Amino acid sequence: MVELRNTTQIANAVSSQQMSKTQDRSAADVMRRIPGVTLQQDRFIMIRGLAERYNTILLNNGIAPSAEADRKAFSLDMIPTRLLDRIIIMKTAMPELSAEFAGGMIKIYTRNTSDDKLFQVIYSTGFRQGTTFQKFNKPYAPGSDLFTLSGKFRNLPGIFPSKLSNEQTEQQVRLGQELPNTWVNNETSAMPDQQIGLMYAGNTKLRNSTLSNLFSIVYNYDSRNINRSIYNYNLYDFKNNKSDTVYHFDDIESIVRVNISALNNTSLIVNSRNKIELKNLVNRSGTNSGVTREGKNFESGNEELNYASRYIERTLLSSQLGGEHERGSHEQLKLDWTIAHNYTLTNEPDYRRLRTVRNLGADANTPYMLVVPPSASLEDLGRFYSTLNEQLLSGAANAEYMPTKNDSNNGKWKIKTGIYTEYRNRDYKARWLSYKKSNIDLFDNQLLYAPLETVFNQENINSTTGFKIEEGTNPTDKYNAGTQLLAWYVQSEYQFGRFTISGGARVEALNQTLSMLDYGRNPITVDNKSIQILPSVIATYPVSEKAFIKAAYAHTVNRPEFREMAAFSYYDFVYNESLTGNPQIKNCNISNFDVRYDFYPSGKELITFGLFYKKFINPIEKYALTGSGGGTRNFSFGNADYASTYGVEAEIKKSLAPLNLGKFINNLSISINSSYIYSRVSLGSKATNQVATRPLMGQSPYIINGGFFYDNDKSGIQASVLYNLIGPRIFAVGADGNPDIYEMPRHVIDASLTKEISKHWDIKIGIRDALNAAFIFMQDANLDNKINAQDETIMRYQVGSAVSLGINYKL
User: Which of 21, 219, 599, 752 is most exposed, with minimal Cβ within 10 Å?
Assistant: First the structure.
């Protein structure tokens, strides 16, 4: 609250104290408590209704790297709340900040060193409705999965050649026998969720200096069953007011997620004016999922029983060395600098998919037949392997000067300048294989009806009656990309009378490159060079000692991500869709206007009300292409002509103690925030068989968060009840007869209770997603730009409520 009150910027924040009062387990959970903030897939942030690509995340003082192969985003579920100190969202730009955002810039600060010695151990376990101790279809999982170290056991054997097509049939057969027979998910019982954490902090005196160190490690294990129904439809029949169904499938997806995070921050406080810090964060996560899909495909005339198994492991290494220095009297000159290195690795080894079919209306005893493709396929008997390596090096230096002769009431001013440089390189490559009949004339067709446990035994992989593997890897399945960015800025702050004006300009020189091959092995190159001058200004007027009015303008930019430019196609089994990049995509430029009223009744209370407006030129969106059959949806990226969005935000954090209605009420406080947002995209000539204007992709028309907090220091009891609701938002943009798909509103309630047992022990119980409301996605079937009873459900699923019990020891 102190930091928010003192900043000239328009911002929101959450502290570690607030996080400790909730059941939030990761930074992603925390973010949805902030005004104007929503999440996609429970881990990608959206601010003011703008998709994750329009937001930038800083980890401490460096750009957070992305471990996502298919989107411009940082996965917030990688950072446990136990490692967080505070999160601040800047909703308007200043020259000192990166200019690449429109929704907001999120500053995630990990726990710093402590003034006092600290030792803390936490343990919690959880029960999830519909999962824990229930039937669980777990894919192949070595024991090392529990420590996210098993990707190497799923990788292609080391004897595999770089290009399988160069090998003779007998060698292809022999190599196929080397692949593990791991097609069938194992039926087991789901374990309870687990969280274990350890934190230590201490100080060492070194003559006149102090060396502080903090170490923390957190281990999370959770599992969940998701029961999902998915549908696809033909074009809407306006005469009969309905769409014919292409397919209807019911999925059971079993997911195990393991996350291990370690933090080590060291600070050398040389004296009151000089400090040097080294911050290190290591995160390893592994997600193992298995899908069993059953249903009817009316387009092909089949009943289908399909399977998929997928494992993804991610590694994040972040190191930052920085310093803060002051010179002169009255903090006349301040200097700070940061050197950062981030490394991310995403490994997706052996993503396996297969289909089995029988005729529609067949007797229940009729066996399913294995679908064997005539050539390599991702959908049928496919095995997919990919790796993403990314290095990010950055450096920044800032200097702030404030004359010592500033008048305390008028004419006070200061100036700040700095430089930032960034080098980023990504290397992505994918490889995929599938089984086919070795010899069509000699093939043993009885294998098509054999149990999946035995059909790919070694004896059935041969050059006559069985299978062999074929490589389908295309020249487009790998790319290399890089970014070189140099930025410098000048900003000043001047106070005259009661007004304070802060502003200046940032210059960013960018060189963004990408190289790959097309299907004909012809080179595709992207060379995106730009130099932009990006001005911004904020005016602050103190209405009183506790109230402020702020008005801001900023020009910012949104650049395409590597994946959006790469003409590489990826098939997603769960959503039955393919995603391909677009090398022709262009930068988006945004003009941002904000005005807000802030009132701080006390040190723990806040009331804000704000308005904002944004204008986009060439907004970047994901949109639908013509389908490829079987109901598969194809998507790519492109630029609309322009877009605009405007909205209103309000937030109240209020203690009920001043009401003096009794001891219980006096210990209560409330937190309520809400947003209403209206947006429109103009497609211009790009509108093909669809409306020319619609809301921005991912934009929710309203967002509501509320919470009651009870805090009784005497009894050692803390409790909270939290509520969250978002309005309907476009999940996927349609085109050429493919309707827009909307994610529908969903009510979420979380609650927690903490009791201090003694000076060193406390216990915590909580429930997450108590209502277990369904996630529902619907398509605008009749293309009337709204969702009503005539429209159809595309997907529906539930994840189950989760109850947790934890104990915390602190020294």
Answer: 599
Nearest to 417 by CA among 336, 501, 536: 336
User: Which amino acid is residue 291, in one-letter code?
Assistant: V
- Mean pLDDT of the 12-34 span: 75
Nearest to 795 by CA among 572, 574, 570, 571: 574
Q: What is the DSSP string of 630-646?
A: TT-EEEEEEE-SEEEEE
Measuring CA to CA, how many Å separate 807 from each of 122, 262, 265, 532, 710? 6, 20, 25, 53, 19
* Among candidate residues 149, 131, 130, 132, the one with its CA nearest the CA of residue 141: 149
Residue 101's closest CA among 535, 489, 559, 425?
A: 559
Determine the pLDDT at residue 221. 94
Q: Report the mean per-residue pLDDT for the chain.
A: 88
* pLDDT attached to residue 681: 86
CB-count burial class (<10 Å; 0-12, 13-18, 19+) for 241: exposed
CA separation for the pair 326, 66 (Å, rounded) = 34
**CA distance linking residue 697 with residue 588, whole number of Å:** 15
How long is the chain?
A: 811
Q: How confident is the model at residue 49 (pLDDT cuts 50, 70, 90)?
A: low
Give the position of tokens 């979420």.
748
Task: Note the pTM of the prediction, 2 decimals.
Answer: 0.89
CA–CA separation, 40 vs 724, rounded Å?
A: 14
456-462: which pairs have CB atoms within 8 A and are 24 or more residues apart? 456/181, 456/183, 457/181, 458/177, 458/181, 461/173, 461/176, 461/177, 461/435, 462/173, 462/438
Question: For a pLDDT cut of 90, what percent of the chain falls above it?
Answer: 51
CA distance 373 to 367: 19
Residue 32 Cα distances to 39, 393, 584, 658, angstroms: 7, 30, 34, 28
